[in-house]
Amino acid sequence: MCTDKEILQTIDANPPQGQRLMLAAYQQRVQSVIASVVGNNQDVEDLTQEALLTVLSTIDSYKPSRGTLATWIYTIAYRKAVSFVRRQRPVILSFDDIDTAVPSISDEERSVVADELSTGREERIQALEQALELLPAQDRLLITLYYYQDCSLAEIAAIIGATANAVSHRLRRIREKLYTLLAINF
Q1: N or C end of the chain: smaller count of CB under 10 Å?
Q2: Architecture of domain 4-88 in CATH?
Q3: CA–CA distance, 143 with 93 (Å, rounded to integer)
Q4: For residues 171 and 179, what is the distance between their CA atoms, to the nearest angstrom?
Q5: Low-confidence ranges of the chain (pLDDT < 50)
Q6: CA 185, 38, 90, 146: dihedral to nearest 10 degrees?
Q7: What is the model's pTM?
């Protein structure tokens, strides 16, 4: 796989080849980011194509001094997905509304859930995937970026327009919600 620097150099020297390299490197990742916000597979595919077309048509506006190529691409994908969701569902809950909807559990209950999940790898993965599906789109996006795309807190903050500290706090609350959901449902 090519590095971002190689992709950008290839785009400058041979745009069609550079675009192919960029698509090969980022198509799956962009699709993953969008899927964490948008549920419908057809919409995910359409938005992925739109986001990648935007990336390819505006590559000249990318400035390495402002962040990595991945962060820039994820920001475009995230904004496309959020814009789409806003058009589909005009009412969006705040994180405060969501936090009150999920009851908290004690450390003892959390320990029991952790013990129950410590047996059977496949069952744990399936339970976690089901719990992730129950989370709001914004929470799934943060989990996807942090755990699956290996983005740093600073990169996620740049993508969603928040501070790294706020992202850290949100991830902690999401992990707590996951423990709660796992305790309640699984």
Answers
A1: N
A2: Orthogonal Bundle (1.10)
A3: 18
A4: 12
A5: 90-95, 97-102
A6: 70
A7: 0.62
